[in-house]
Amino acid sequence: MILETIIGILGLVVVILGYTTFNLLRKNEKAEDIIISQSDFIDKFSSQLDVSQKRLEEIDDKGTFQGDDEIGWFFNEVKKLQNDLSRFKTNK
């Protein structure tokens, strides 16, 4: 009688531990998928930052937007934003 009770309790514990392990595995796989998609987004964003940085440098080398008018002010603000964003790019 006691042996059957112990086996029953151990069987219940095994089922509970199996379910919790499976549930944690499922949650971990979802978290890994999210991390992979975020990493892909960051890589694409970083490469886009590189392209836009190069293009801004090409435009700036010509000195076309050096004036004090609204376009020159806007171009300088875009350059500031680009420099701020470039701090967050990945180095691969």
Going by helix content, strand content and strand pairing, the class is mainly alpha
What's the quaternary structure here?
Answer: single chain
Distance between the termini: 65 Å
Which percent range fits the helix content?
over 70%
**What proportion of the residues form beta strands (DSSP E)?**
under 5%
Task: Output the number of helix runs.
Answer: 2
- The overall pLDDT average reads 85
Task: Spell the H/E element sequence.
Answer: HH
Q: How many strands, which pairing sense, and closed or not: the largest β-sheet?
A: none
Tally of DSSP β-strands: 0
- Coarse shape: rod-shaped
* Uncertain residue ranges: none
Q: Give me the Rg, rounded.
A: 28 Å
Describe this structure in words.
With 92 residues, this protein is mainly alpha-helical. The chain has two helices and no strands. The radius of gyration is 28 Å and the shape is rod-shaped. The N and C termini lie far apart (65 Å). The model has no long low-confidence stretch (mean pLDDT 85).
